[in-house]
Amino acid sequence: MSTISNKEIARFLLDAELERKDVVRITSDKVPNLNVEDAYLIQEELVKLKLKEGHSIVGPKMGLTSLAKMKQMNVEEPIYGYIFDNMVVPDGGTISLSDFIHPKVEAEVAFILGKDIEGPSISGAQVLAATEYVCPALEIIDSRYENFNFTLPDVIADNASSSKVVFGNTVRKPEELDLELIGTVLSINGEIKDLGAGAAVLGHPANSVAMLANMLHRKGEKLTAGQVILTGGITGAVHLSYGDYVSAKLDGLGEVHFSVG
Ligand code: 0L1
Ligand code: MG
């Protein structure tokens, strides 16, 4: 039986994040039999610690929403984590490589909710009806685990590798765009690194929010008006290096960008 508490594991992961120090995945020694349900309990402790340190939640994020990532992890369901206010970088801003362990970037669409959404059985159409705006985003993920080497419960406990996010300044009503077809190009230093369409995210980014609402319902929680939700990578995640200029262009949503110093 494990003698280490969920709170202690959460503290261990948070310390790794704050010290920019990668650690061996928790399922290799600390909690070898960790399952998905218990991993979310550790994530909850991590969220509580961050709230206690004075940070506030901007909104939840979905991860592992592409078929490629799900196959790679051998999972049938995406995962969620939380974005906090201190993770938000202004559009056009500069991040410092020394603030990270081994950051990667991916291009996403973010949903800004106008109404609460409560599962179960929420559909993509219901999500679109409850969404005030969508905007482009670049998510910077930074697993606390050595070499991004983790199992599904490990990454859930680690707040789905959340690290930073840059939201673009263009907001549009969801009905003005066909989000399934939204073409997305991720470039670094002017070189295209990956591209995709909105359908890469569970067939339609709104499906990602619907699935999130249904997953949260299992815990008796709901999505609330005003939350900004990252729906998952349309592109793959690309490693960042010192001096990079990163840009994503999303058809109809414009450009979002940042530099790495
Ligand atoms: O946002 C994401 O899709 C990341 C989920 C966690 C998996 C990873 O770190 O690659
Ligand atoms: Mg992501």
Automatic annotation (TrEMBL):
It holds the Pfam family FAA_hydrolase. GO terms for molecular function: 2-oxopent-4-enoate hydratase activity. Keywords: Lyase. It comes from the Bacteria. SUPFAM superfamilies: FAH (SSF56529). The keyword Lyase applies. Residues 74-259 form the Fumarylacetoacetase-like C-terminal domain. Coiled coil: none annotated. One of its GO terms (cellular component) is cytoplasm. InterPro entries: Fumarylacetoacetase-like_C, Fumarylacetoacetase_C_sf, Hydratase-Decarb/MhpD_sf. The keyword Lyase applies. PANTHER family: 2-KETO-4-PENTENOATE HYDRATASE, ACID HYDRATASE. This is 2-keto-4-pentenoate hydratase. It comes from Alkalihalophilus pseudofirmus (strain ATCC BAA-2126 / JCM 17055 / OF4) (Bacillus pseudofirmus).
